[in-house]
Amino acid sequence: MASSSKKAKFEALRKQRIACYRSKQRLQKRKDALTSELRKCKERLNDLKDSDLEDSAKKAELPEAQIVLLTECVAAAKATSKQARCCRDNWLLLCPLLQIRSPAAYRFLRDSHILPLPCVKTVRKCISTVGMKCGFDAEFFSPLKKKLEARSEFQKHGILLFDEIQVRERECVESRTLTYIGLVDNGNSNGETSALANHALVFMFCPFGENYAQPIGVFASRGATKGTVLSQLSCRLLSR
């Protein structure tokens, strides 16, 4: 016959075992419920269309940049692998700006999986596709005309701005076109020179009814641009 003290210990162990078993059962039920809920969320995510997501975001009056980010996060969640994921054009336009602004922050956000950012090589490829020629952007005026046609009479008006900064003198070779960069260039192929540029002039268009500034042309000069040259460039721009 067991003593009363041993019976008490045995009873305590039995109660602990029952309590552990019941706790395990509750945790298992909770796990099954969460697994089922996660599976349903994945199914809803896979069935979610980009148009529905954008409509919901617009109803919530989210900024355009946040809508692009939200759409890209959902697309990254749907991707089966990192290699199979393709970034959208709007997102690829924002990523180089973030990488240029702070390379360290870009690497941190990407390595920590806070944002679905592409690798730095992809960003550099996007930047390399940007034209490096001086002069006015010939492909700008047609899209601008098409965009302004859908605007109100007030939004069609804007102001032409130009700004000039001093830059460091440096000559380098563009590997894609095998041409020199850093020389004086006024956008005229007939006026080639071997002098190094130390000033950069930028023309921009700013509409009255919207909050953005669109660069139109860039020019490289040695020394501050003279008033006569500014007048000539302005006439060239207005003649387009």
Provide the fold topology.
Layout: H1 4-47, H2 50-59, H3 64-78, H4 89-101, H5 103-111, H6 120-128, E1 135-136, H7 141-148, E2 158-166, E3 172-174, E4 179-181, E5 199-207, E6 214-221, H8 227-238
Antiparallel strand pairs: 1-6, 2-5, 3-4, 5-6
Protein name: Transposable element P transposase-like RNase H domain-containing protein
Coiled coil: 24-51
Domain Transposable element P transposase-like RNase H: 133-233
Explained architecture:
The chain is 50% helix and 14% strand. The strands form 2 sheets. It has a 4-stranded antiparallel beta sheet with strand order 1-6-5-2, with no helix packed on it. α4 packs across α6. The mean pLDDT is 81.
Can I get a quick summary?
By secondary structure, the chain is an alpha+beta fold.
